[in-house]
Amino acid sequence: MLMNGNPIVRVQNLHKWFGLLHVLRGISLEVYPQEVVVIIGRSGSGKSTFLRCLNLLEEPTSGRVEIDGVAVEAAEGELLPDSRARMRDLRLKTGMVFQEFNVFPHKTVLENVIEAPVIVKGVPKEQAVEKARELLRKVGLLDKQDVHPIRLSGGQKQRVAIARALAMEPKVMLFDEPTSALDPELIGEVLAVMKDLAREGTTMIVVTHEMGFAHEVADRVIYMEAGMLVEEGPPEQIFTSPRDPRTCQFLARIIESGRLV
Amino acid sequence: MAEPLSQIPPESDPDLAVGLALVRRARRIRLVETVKVGIVWFALLALLTIGLLQLRFDPQYLLRHTNFVLQGIGTTIGVSVVSILIASVLALFGALGRLSRNPIAQGISSFYISVIRGTPLLIQVYFIYLGLPQIGQQLKGLGYPQLADIFTLSEIQSGILALSLNYGAYMTEIFRAGLQAVGHGQYEAAAALGMTRWQMLRRIILPQAIRVIIPDVGNQFIAMQKDSALVSLMGVWEITFRANRLARKDSKFIEMLLVAATLYWILTVVSSWLQSRLEKRMAHAYER
After folding, report:
1. Residue B185 in 3-state DSSP?
2. Which residues of A touch B194 (CB under 8 A)?
3. Model confidence at B279, in pLDDT bands (50, 70, 90)?
């Protein structure tokens, strides 16, 4: 595990209830700069909800989230008032990539990427365009800059979404099952971009079913079940000698389905 | 999308040649059908004309005074255009109010919609035209002449106010549906990028919602052009007012009503055409 100084993400005792459903049951986690944390687990284990609580797309019922010095806290189902005021500050620390891409269909690829820097941060347009081109080159879509998303494949849309998030220069990138909505032949191009980011030292928290990616790229793998972090460790250890019986069972099922490389 | 067929060289592929022949044949059949429908329309119009001529209908009078009625078309269009614009703004805020969690915004919005939809347009027209000046008089009596001025509107202002208020309430539902038609993921993506609610609305949600809203607003506009006839009751010199004035004076009701009806009809046809062109233009970003 990398330990570059102080943790950049600090989560303390996070709980989330959806009505009568207790989805997150007291999660605590620290992520260090440049670390790649991959969260695995079956559907409904609360992985996505946890990720979405980190940038307050989901408001936690109780607990504390701190990212790069911006802290928010919830108690008894409500964000504390001064935490609510910091909601946007917290979101500016994070970039999120969604399962369903959520690119803006009414804007061209380039417009998608410059939108938030220009509108939210007030970056001058020429500067934003220059930066956007650089990012589009990085994700291999510079030639598509003037195209509307409807003409892109799923993999291309997701790469635009990654560039769009990176354009805001977030401290932490959150990936919420970024390849789950993709046709199998398009998964590789998105994972390749994510591997590049990891190699460059981007701090990443990734929820995924791509065990190969977790194995190869993660600094730390976390197995989550029933709203709790069951086990964590380096990928070698989690995938070859998991200690918790629940992790063993999950991985056995994955191996059975032939998805573990 | 209809490709310009002439640009595809048919020799390049035998399959393509078969496809082209099929497409051309389908188009020809469709064209013939359209022509047949047109012939029926023409026959109906001819029958109507012949029938009216039998009943001592006076086409000379009609032609002589068409111009007088036609001069009202600018007022009709002007009142309708301004009203649909104001109504759209009202509808947008009405929709935002309805979708808001703020009880004041929600209360104002639902009250407005309920009152306007629960009362006839005709009563609203009278209320604004006859009721507001009465309020103005009372205020003047109470010693607020400036306030009284606000309540004293010209005929055209009254007409625009009545139509805007009325259509704004009905169009609130259209705008609400439009805002809700934009996927939840779009809101989330904008929020995750750190946008404020206003930035999100203006830059991401509205531009997409407009596409859903435009056809319905177009329909409302077409309906409004005809409902604007009601403001003739306020003495606005638009199409209906002018037609009615001559009709009463010379007892030529059929003649003048025909003129007015035809003008509205032409307006509607032209508006529908403009609407379909606008929709096509707006679809641009969504075409492969």
Report:
1. helix
2. 88, 91-92, 116, 120-121, 168
3. confident
